Amino acid sequence: MKWVVSLIVSLLGSLALADAAPAAAPRDGVTPFIPLLMIFGVFYFLILRPQQKKQKEQLKFISELKRGDMVITQAGIIGTVKTVSDKFVTLEVDENVHLKVLKSQIAESATTLKESKIASTKEVTA
Question: Whole-prediction pTM value?
Answer without folding.
Answer: 0.60
